[in-house]
Amino acid sequence: MTDLNDGESTRVKGSGSAVYTLKNTGGVFSCTCPAWRNQSEPIERRTCKHLRRVRGDEVESARVGTSAPAVGKATVRSGVTAGDTNEPPLLLAHRWESDVDLRGWWLSEKLDGVRAYWNGRQFISRLGNAFHAPDWFTAGLPSTPFDGELWGGRKQFQRTVGIVKRQDKSPLWKDLKYVVFDAPAERTPFEARIQHCKETLGPLELPHVSVHEHHVCCGLDHLRNELARVEGLGGEGLMARRPGSLYEIGRSTTLLKVKTFHDAEARVVAHSAGAGRHAGRVGALVVELENGTRFNVGTGLSDAEREAPPAVGSVITFRYQELSDGGVPRFPSYVGVRIDAHWKTNAPALGVVVAAIEPSTADGQAPASAEKSRTQSEATGTAARCFEFVDAKSSKFWEATLDGDVFSSRYGKIGAAGTTTTKRLASAAAALNEHSKAVAEKLKKGYVENAASQSAPAASRKSQVSGGEPMNEEIFWRIISLFDWEKTGDDEAVLRKAHKALTAMPEFDIGTFDDILAQKLFALDTREHCRHCYAGKLDPDNGDDYISADDFLYNRCAAVANGREFYEEVLHDPSKMPQGLEFESLLSLASEAYEDKTGEEYDHSTPVSYESFSNKDAWRPTQNTREGKFTGEHVPPGNRRPT
Q1: C-alpha angle with apex 73: 70 to 76, nearest 5 degrees?
Q2: Between vectors from CA 227 to CA 97 and to CA 207, what angle results, nearest 5°?
Q3: Comparing C-alpha atoms, which of 50, 13, 15 is closest to residue 30?
Q4: Mean pLDDT highest for which of 57-71, 192-206, 481-495?
Q5: pLDDT at site 14
Q6: d(Cα 469, Cα 452) in Å, to the nearest integer?
Q7: How far apart are CA 492 and CA 42, in angstroms?
Q8: Per-residue pLDDT for 194 more than 90?
Q9: 589-598 vs 507-524: helix crossing angle, rounded to 10
Q10: Are 550 and 39 in contact (CB under 8 A)?
Q11: How many CB atoms lie within 10 A of CB 167?
């Protein structure tokens, strides 16, 4: 029998035409077959007939031994009160957007490992899960808390994850180091805290424990050179720490992630409706690269641009940090519209094509060579944008089409042929402006764009879910409906089908699923929903009543997890808000699907926050609201209710 060495993989034939990949990652043997993926065992205790065929039955039996029960959180769905979260109180970073002068800040390499909080007894993950480190790895560590990273070296993130997820105290921990960069319990400035780390850990002389190096930023040129040096070595980027800063719990502007940004162009193909403060206007642009890759661009849009967004068919410039393995730009940010460019389709991926945009001629027309190779629809972005407005009194549609200097619209009752109006403007730019203003007006009036069927006639449009359709609300609820509640008590089993469906989708769609989930949770983050969630127990108007931000969030998760019909009933009638229910695991569905699909750390920011008390408009004080010990500036922001 042959075997797989660490880092090696092989492909084997399954039943029918299926081909599966077997891999050894840090001593964890995996297979892409459904039998391996759908087991509830820890990943190092899973096996399948394909692994047994390659490695030998005796070898596999010796490796996996007797199955150990999976460890997970209890799922509550009907009348059982959930327990408290064990998430450690960590300081989290914001992204640097070039808006802060980092001169004088402390710089360090951003380690692409696994965040680990040492609580004096064991290592804890960001989500409160214990890491099963060998006894020799933790022996000698102090009983005081430290914040750091379990690190296996640059470009070793996936292997590091494979090692720390194991529950067998694997000897492969010898390849990891615990790199410490803070001491959360010390209520002193950063400089004193890092000195405390050195004085406490240095004398222990543990070869696998070190204090992370920091040095002062001397200015923008120094920052760029240091960033280039770290990235040239295969590093992920830099972290910048404000001098004299205290250790804060939650996201703080005192800690910033710094990564290289690149510029590129994309074509707008649809608009994603906003939520919260952006309700009634655009939340993000759905854009497409020349090779067909689609993703959202929401960051960077001003309020005015959300009211009158770049039209479908227009070309924008965006900034991004890097490409995922699937070629999707990570952390894209809107820069502006390219009015002097025409679009080419079916181009290679980013990083391959150098000149993907052809400039216009002086008279604003595309070069003749470009016109001959492009249909009218491709040149002008003429695909109809379809909107619908449905309430108790009416059911209407409105479509807008842009064709050079001609702007057309069609409107009427859904199911009817409708009425068409056409207007020729002085120039293509004027038509584009007219189109954008008309779309903004419809969004203000409550029309919702049917992005999945932009080119279909309103009379024949119907909601469909197919493998090639981009993520939208219909698909979101279809995935939620995959939850298997017969497996209640085992969150992983409940989510397994939904997890599998998400991992089969493009990375962009996984992020969009998270965006929609955040919007759903944000909409339930209201004073009235909270009131009914704790009716007879706690009063959100009473500042002396403690309401856990986490508990209220997990209750809202349960409302979403119970499906579309239940969610919409709760949304419109807060008295139907469930009590004593929670489904925290919903929050990690997208991140785990992304990480399983790509092997990369999920670092996605949603357009709105789902954290409790974030929906400021819905938490405006009433005449009964009164201050108390759980309101005001002395309360940590995460549990501070607005008054």
Answers
A1: 125
A2: 120
A3: 50
A4: 192-206
A5: 62
A6: 7
A7: 11
A8: yes
A9: 170
A10: no
A11: 16
Q: How many CB atoms lie within 10 A of CB 577?
A: 25
**Residues 207, 249, 333, 158: is their CA dihedral positive or negative?**
positive
Q: Assess whether 393 carries a catalytic annotation.
A: no
Provide the token pair at 202. 């240095």
CA atoms within 13 A on the CB side of 458: 25
Q: What is the helix (H) or strand (E) element at residue 91, kind and residue range?
A: strand 91-95
List 211's β-bridge partners, or say none: 180
What is the length of the chain? 643
How far is Cα 408 from Cα 419, in angstroms, rounded to an integer? Answer: 11
Using an 8 Å Cβ cutoff, are 258 and 278 in contact?
no
Gap between the Cα atoms of 238 and 229, Å rounded: 10
CA distances from 346 to 316, 349, 468, 547 (A): 17, 9, 17, 53
Q: What is the DSSP string of 389-456?
A: EE-SS-EEEEEEEEETTEEEEEEEETTS--EEEEEE-SSHHHHHHHHHHHHHHHHHTT-EE-GGGTTS
CB 386 within 8 A of CB 460: no
Among residues 110, 177, 257, 442, the one annotated as catalytic is 110
Q: Is 55 exposed, middle or buried (0-12, 13-18, 19+ CB in 10 A)?
A: buried
In angstroms, the CA 235 to CA 257 distance is 13
DSSP label at 582? B
The DSSP secondary-structure symbol of 480 reads H
What residue type is 402 in one-letter code? L
> What mean pLDDT is predicted for residues 286-290?
88
pLDDT digit string, tens, across residues 390-420: 765 667 888 888 777 778 888 887 766 667 7
Model confidence at 70: pLDDT above 50: no
Q: If you average pLDDT over residues 492-515, what whole number do you get?
A: 87
422 to 47, 419, 429, 434: CA distances (angstroms): 64, 10, 16, 12
Give the residue from 549, 608, 514 showing the smallest Cα distance to 277.
608
Q: How far, in Å, CA of 347 to CA of 356, rounded?
A: 7
**What are 298-321's pLDDT values in tens digits?**
877 877 788 888 888 888 888 776
